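In response to reviewer comment 3 from the previous cycle, which asked for concrete evidence that the modeling workflow produces usable outputs, we include below a single protein chain processed end to end. The sequence was submitted unchanged, and the resulting structure tokens are shown without manual editing.
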Amino acid sequence: EAQLVESGGGLVQAGGSLTLSCVASGFTFDDYAIGWFRQVAGKEREGVSCLSAIDRDTDYADAVKGRFTISSDSAKNTVYLQMNNLKPEDTAVYYCNIDAFWGQGTQVTVSS
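The workflow returned the following structure tokens.
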């Protein structure tokens, strides 16, 4: 059964850092593109960053370029999102996505 489990969220002051992890099971990991998304209550879910399948090319939303880094470890079936210089506007529930599957989300709260 395909499953994604995120972790690593929390409360951090502006300017701080967090690393989110997403462990994937039930997938041939390298065959799929992987994305991180975030959602604020009452707003649409938005894309944050993604890794392409196979070559693992990266892409970032303009709002996080230069501050966030996406990476993966195929041996661990895990994708990471390193978030630096966090801002209050980064506060959201963060989700990872593979194909039609979503994790349960992890809350990131950045205080000013």
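The radius of gyration is 13 Å. We consider this sufficient to address the reviewer's concern, and the full set will be provided in the supplementary archive.
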